[in-house]
Amino acid sequence: MTTTPREAVGQAYDPALMLRARERSWAVLQGIRERMRPGISEDEARTEAAEVFRAHGLERLWHPVVIRIGANTTLSFRERSNPDLRLGEDDIYFIDLGLVFEGHEGDVGDTFTTGADPARQACAEAARTLFDEVAAAWRTRGLSGEALYAFAGERAQAMGWRLNHAIKGHRVGDFPHAIHKAGDLGTLEQAPSSGLWILEIQIAHPSEPYGAFYEDLLVG
């Protein structure tokens, strides 16, 4: 049990189960990625995702499945997609999953491309690179949640991308983490503890209508 209210957990919390939920969530995400193909819509992709969930023994969702295609990749979690978009031959998309395994929450997200458009490939890779840089700053410099997102904004700009400042990361834990009302990682005035916080990175091209997303558990 942690002593900081924003890092409170339940009696069932087990760090090992958190890591296992993370690992299994990434496996599910890859299973959905394998089904993504030109011509598919977001609604169709979510329908097929349900088949992947069954194959992996998913316990439940803790947030709705988010799959964004093309221009919808610039939208944040609560914004509504244009439902008419279908994945193109040289396109970009991301998958964002909040899954529960063994009573513990996984939350993973990544961006992929179809075809060989170098600009979209660079965008997807930049989200991963920026995540890695921010996570490394947490591990080596002990930055607070607030400082991590300030650093993310500076690095995104230096890399030539726009950071979506509305995306601030959040808590996870033994389900449901929401009872602890921990707020966003980006408002945390202390260094986040390992295994409790999701670092979310969403960027957009400075002038074109597409972006990329990456998220994972901060682990030391």
UniProtKB/TrEMBL annotation:
Residue span, Peptidase M24 domain: 17-217
Signal peptide: none
InterPro entries: Creatinase/aminopeptidase-like (IPR036005), Pept_M24 (IPR000994)
Pfam families found in the cross-reference section: Peptidase_M24
Name of this protein: Metallopeptidase family M24
